[in-house]
Amino acid sequence: MIVDPKNNQLYVSNDNRVNIIDKVTESPIAEITDTNGVHGIAFIPNTNKGYIFYCKLNKIKVFDTQTNTIIGEIPTGKNPDAIFYETF
User: Fold this and answer.
1) CA distance 59 to 46
2) Is the separation of the CB atoms in 85 and 42 below 8 Å?
3) What are the structural domain ranges in the chain?
4) Domain 2-75 has CATH 3.30.1360.30
5) CA of residue 73 relative to chain centroid, distance
6) FRET partner for 16 with CA separation of 20 to 30 A, picked from 5, 33, 81, 82?
């Protein structure tokens, strides 16, 4: 679970999907599916991109945080276990 500070939305990973919830109204906004084994979500400040990493398929999905639609995929090594963004 992580909050995107840019749009104040809560992203909750749930095995094979990510539920997106408005933090203020607590209402569901969207759902990103086909993320089998989702382990983590990260955002890059000052962009409209988020990254969902799911270990069972060794991939990262790139999504637009304004529309919550998938805009790409990035292959990873076998059995990735974490995702984060370092501003340095």
Assistant:
1) 23
2) yes
3) 2-75
4) no
5) 12
6) 5
